[in-house]
Amino acid sequence: MKTAEIKLLSTTALKTSVDDLTAQFERERGCRLLAAYAPSTQIAKRVGEGEFADVAISTNARIDDLIRKGRIVAGTRVDIARSEIGVAVRPGTPRPDVSSAAAFKQALLAAKSIGMSNPDGGGASGIHLWSVFERLGIANRLKPKTTFGPGGPAGLIGFYLLRGEVEIGLQQMPELMAVAGIDIVGPVPGEFQNVTVFSAGIPTIAKDAEGGKALAKFLTTPVAAAVIKSKGMQPA
Question: pTM (2 decimals)?
Answer without folding.
Answer: 0.90
